[in-house]
Amino acid sequence: MRKRFLPVLLLLLTPLRLWAWGVDGHRAIGKIAENHLSRHAKKEIQKLLGTETLPLVSTWPDEIRFYPEFKDTAPWHYVNTASGLNHDQYVQQLKAQTTPNAYNVLIKQLETLKDTHKTQAERLAALKFVVHIVGDVHQPLHAGHAEDKGGNDIKLKYRGKDTNLHSLWDSGLLDYQGLTYSEIAGQYEPQLRGRQVKTWQKATPEQWLWESYQASEQIYGDVPANGDVDYKYYPAHSELMKQRIEQAGVRLAAILNETLK
Ligand code: ADE
Ligand code: ZN
Ligand code: ZN
Asked: Does the keyword Nuclease apply (predicted)?
């Protein structure tokens, strides 16, 4: 085989590594958010999006991250910290990180989205990142440990296939249901009660990440010793997964309502 075909072949053989909630998780979050937007925010968002929708643009940051001109955005999807931190230590570590991460980039992108002196293109890109990152930081393993790359290095077997802890939580568990994103949003959403939505929406990005971090500590602790994720894992964890997706959706709406008011 000629040498220059080798990289192409290797690329084709490499399984696509997903780095965030899978496509359906992100889109379900966008869909839930749509249902909680104010009239004004909806109008502003539509001006930026044109014919696109929040669910459809929610995965854009995952689509571009592999291209050279966007390679700097790779760390924008997660915040890793040490294990065993209490709340104050966690928030302190979160705020002390100066290299770009999901937390400090989210704050920057919200500022760009709010700034009407920026170009439409800049504000549109910021909107897409906000939609995506609010989703990512609700995936517990996007607030995990650096030493195992948020669970990417913890190898597991699930339903007869090789996977890892991170991927299980990005998409493996959610795909288990075999639903479309509209079906996921449609199944989760009607059970949301007004009072609970309001309480969730009051939380700050620091709190969202602290919740993810705490959930990740539990998930790390629940890794099956033999690496085999059995049939009891899904029922034991589906409620947590559902709650993180619902929370991401209603909080995304709240932060967009506030930023675009
Ligand atoms: N790479 C390194 N840490 C990661 C994390 N927490 N999530 C996704 N990708 C990562
Ligand atoms: Zn992501
Ligand atoms: Zn991920």
From this structure: yes
Residue 109 structural domain: 2-259
For 152-197, write each residue's pLDDT tens digit: 999 999 999 999 999 999 999 999 889 999 999 999 988 888 889 9
For a mutational test of ligand 1's pocket, the pick from 71, 77, 133, 168, i.e. the residue with the most ligand atoms closer than 8 A to its C-beta, is 77
Distance CA 35, CA 42 (A): 10
Q: Could you tell me the distance, in angstroms and rounded to a whole number, from the CA of residue 256 to the centre of ligand 2?
A: 18
Q: What is the pLDDT of residues 192-232, one digit of tens each?
A: 888 899 999 999 999 999 999 999 999 999 999 999 999 99
The CA 106 to ligand 3 mean position distance, Å, reads 16
Contact call for residues 99 and 127 (beta carbons, < 8 A): no
- Residues flanking ligand 1, CB < 6 Å: 19, 77-78, 80, 141-142, 144, 149-150, 152
CATH number for the domain that contains residue 132: 1.10.575.10
Q: Give the pLDDT score at 12.
A: 46
Determine the distance from the C-alpha atom of residue 32 to the mean position of all C-alpha atoms in its chain, rounded to a whole number.
14
Domain count, the chain: 1
The residue whose C-alpha atom lies closest to atom 5 belonging to ligand 1 is: 150
Instruction: Specify the residue with its C-alpha closest to ligand 1, atom 3.
Output: 149
Long-range CB contacts (within 8 A, 24+) of 158-163: 158/229, 158/233, 159/229, 163/229
